[in-house]
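Q: Predict the assembly, please.
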Amino acid sequence: MLALQLAVTGLQTGALYALTAVGFSLIFGSTRIFHFAHGATFAIAAYFFYFVFQAGFGTVPAILGASAGAIAFGLLIYWLVYVPVQRHEGSFFTVFVASFGVGIAVQNLLGMVFGRGFVTVNTSLSRSSEILPGLYVAPLAWVAIACAIVFLGALHLFLRHTHTGMALRALSDNPELVRIFGLSPQRISAIVFVIGSVLVVPAAIITSATTGLNPAIGHHVMLISLAASIVGGIGSVYGTLLAGLILGLAESMALLFVASQWTEAVTFAILFAFILIRPSGLLGRATAH
Amino acid sequence: MTPVLETRGLAAGYGGRSVISDINVTLNPSEVLCVIGHNGAGKSTMLKTMFGLISPDAGSVHIDGEDVTKLNPRDIAELGVAMVPEGRGVFPSLSVSDIFALGMHAVGVPKAERAERLEWVLGILPAIREFMERPASTLSGGQQQMVSIGRALLPRPRILLMDEPSIGLAPKLFQDLLAPVRKLQQEEGLSILLVEQNVREALKISDRALVVKSGAIAWTGEPEELADNKRLIELY
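A: Predicted assembly structure:
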């Protein structure tokens, strides 16, 4: 029963990892921007939810607040940081440093406003109940899995069946050709940042109501997103989705063999194994894009 | 006669490095103008600047006498200009039908006209029907070039800018691809600016030619003159 318990927990964690990592992978795959501050988007969404919920406005306003915060941050960092850096032909490394700097600034700002300790949102959905003898599951686990299915399913339909989705895939193939077609790569990139930021919102909200938050949570999220993107295959949204699920499950199932403080090491053991054995990842292209 | 496309003293480059300077080109209605020159002479830069992909350092671009120098590619496309880029102008991860759908959406072809436009292009390039649903990455070089030309024709342009469409293609295939475009030029008055290194094949279909050397126009005149003149042959 312990294995089943860990599998359910792992599936919940994997669903949240998949949502977050797919957002990062989508942004990197389409725009080639190493959006290290994606973790900061997660933290902002989570703290916005926490703030509005604790202020007594209720769940829906809190979800809307978290979404607005994440979208606004994603758009602002794109237009105010990445576009100017790219206009001055900043290198990949310059973009990374700029993004890293913004991530640190957000972490410190959140620490100043909300304090550096852990905070948690208490809802009735967080409380586990015994659904089978010895198997305890909180309703939020099903919410997490349902959110992943709905959001990632919607993303799939969007990418395959809308002109904007096609443009987004086209941007990842060849930005100059996108301009020749008569489309604006900057406008498409802005849309990518909105979608990538929205994808972290359910994960951020559910995390705030399960494991809790601290201002440094963005770093953990970013490391997981990066690991899932590499394991899934750089730029492959579907590979990243799969990798997020695998990493979440592996982290949880590892508790069968190791103590809890070692579970994060499992993620990086898988990452290193992929780098050594299959550097292109699960569904990545064989050569660098 | 007002040229459909004209540049006046056009200069452009990359990162402060000048690539073309003082380019004065006119493209007349229903004309095929061939631009030839060595690798790195500035032919593609010239074409990209005309289409708004590169901002010029000096000079101006005119369409039907109107100054379009500051317009972006989308606005220039709306004026009836289309470009077939160098290399393969397709997105590898998209299917041919997606590429065509995106191409029409991008330049604002009304939804009600899209099916008819598609049929028109498939009438000109019927071989595309056989691989409409295949990802572009699985097509041969010739098929990809055919899709690239088909996509450029979808908005029914008046001016077609073609950047080295013969690259990687056998001369026979190149002529087969150009034949329908040439027909459109003769029957519908399409004006074509063709940048080519495959001089022999390009001159066969050109009304006028110009040679670009080191970023400047070195010669302009009749294709026959160019083909027979040893001094001119050395220029390219």
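The mean pLDDT of chain B is 90. The interface with chain A takes residues 15, 51, 53, 72-74, 77-78, 83, 85, 89-94, 98, 101-103, 105-107, 151 of chain B (CB under 8 Å).
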